[in-house]
Amino acid sequence: RFARRLGTLVKSRRFLLVAISMKMPDQQRMLIQKGDEASESADEIDDDVQANLVCPSALSAVLSMLCPCAWLCSIRTIQQNEQAAVMAWGQYAGSITKPGLTIINPCGIELRIASTARTSLDLKDMRCSDAKGNPIIVSGNVIYKIFSVKKAKVDIQNVEQYISEQGPMVLRKVCSHFPFDSSSGPSLRGGGTADNSVGAVLRKELQTILLDSGIAVLKFDLSDIYYAAEIAAAMLQKQQAEAMVEARELIVQSAVDIASSAISRMKAKCHQLSAQGEERILGNLLTVICSDRGVQTIMPLQM
Which of 116, 117, 119, 112 is nearest to 148 (CA)? Predict the structure, then answer.
């Protein structure tokens, strides 16, 4: 009698396993296959799929039926701006993308919850070189959010650590293509259009790396930049000299325009000027305007 009952129980369990597997979605049945079928299914479910919470796997369904008391621990809460990856016996079974109360089969199930709210990460004091080879110290700020909980919690071990490791490499790579300062194009200190600015290039380069990680880079900007200590004094003198040259060029150009305008106005008012008189007026005006000090007038006195 015991053998008959045992045989009947085994047959009923086999029938139950077959019935449950036939009712399972295609995505879930691919997860329990072995060999080549398992590798093919991994490519097909690379993106997030909706999880079958009541029957994530055949084994979970059988255990929950044999132990109905386990359903007392089946209610889970998913907060706002959160998503969860459902792992059934170590295998990805789907994702929960909507917040609220959820009933999940408790047998062999693990929830890997990730926040989809915007998050910022600071990259401080990264040493790199600009386009001219000058050593500089830069700091950046990354604003990102998770759009795929499967990629962020299953394919990546630690999202924040992953970004903190990839961000400095992108920062050094992009900074090496831009000069520290430039008046004719985009530079690390600012300038350029919105499409070719440093922030736009940084965000594009980092997004290319993090796209397969389920992370959307919303913004990546430089928060601080300065020359390294060993060349800071020399570069300061260079900047001062360049600023002085630009200022002198502007002063001389303006002085020439003012002197020429003065001569033209005098002729327009019928003042007769000789060639020597024009040269003397031009020379005096250029001297007064271009001088970096106050001019003192000297009048000759004839006795």
Answer: 116
Nearest Cα residue to 217 out of 188, 257, 174: 174
Cα 52 to its chain centre, rounded Å, is 34
Tell me the C-alpha distance between 97 and 150, whole Å. 10
pLDDT at residue 51 greater than cutoff 80: no
The CB-side HSE value for 100 (13 A sphere, CA atoms) comes to 4
Summarised one tens digit per residue, pLDDT across range 79-117 is 888 888 888 888 888 888 888 888 887 787 888 888 999
